[in-house]
Amino acid sequence: MSGEIPFWKEKSLAEMTVEEWEALCDGCGRCCLIKLEDEDTEELAFTRVACELLDIGACRCTDYGNRRERVPDCVQLTPRAVEELGWLPESCAYRLVANGEDLAWWHPLVSNDPMTIHLAGISVRDFAISENCVKDKRYEKYIVHSM
């Protein structure tokens, strides 16, 4: 980037083009992990179980364009949703930009290498299992205590 200011440093989330918004996704796959909510306390528990549409190796949705039709409770990130969703990881590029922070060294836009997110251990690649592998749908067996 020859002296040019990166778009994520000069634009708010709301000002980004669709292409910029999509490029901001670091490809960690963490937002695609199934979360369980306690009905009494509304507390969230995170699991290592990934949405059936997540290609865990690539950490990308296999049917991104139709994901909301196929998985009705899939959360679509918007600038407003980023502000409201407390479960987004602290490392999430959308959250960082919304808070006026810079992207981490491993973010593909910074490193120019889509593999650095995996090499840094940020993605779910070596951690998640597909919900298709959880035959009894007892996701509580897969709760993790840190994300």
So what's the overall shape?
Answer: globular
By helix and strand content, what is the structural category?
A: alpha+beta
Number of domains: 1
Helix content: 10-25%
**What profile does the largest beta sheet have?**
4 strands, mixed
Describe the structure.
24% of the residues lie in helices and 14% in strands. It is of the alpha+beta class. It has one domain. Strands 1, 2, 5 and 6 form a 4-stranded mixed β-sheet that branches. Strands 3-4 form a two-stranded antiparallel ribbon. The longest helix has 7 residues, at 18-24. The protein is globular, with a radius of gyration of 16 Å. The mean pLDDT is 93.
What key phrases describe this protein's structure?
147 residues, alpha+beta, 6 strands, 7 helices, single chain
Topology, please?
Elements: H1 7-10, H2 18-24, E1 33-37, E2 44-50, E3 54-55, E4 60-61, H3 67-70, H4 79-84, H5 93-98, H6 108-111, H7 116-119, E5 129-130, E6 143-144
Parallel strand pairs: 2-5
Antiparallel strand pairs: 1-2, 2-6, 3-4
Summarize the structure.
With 147 residues, the chain is an alpha+beta fold.
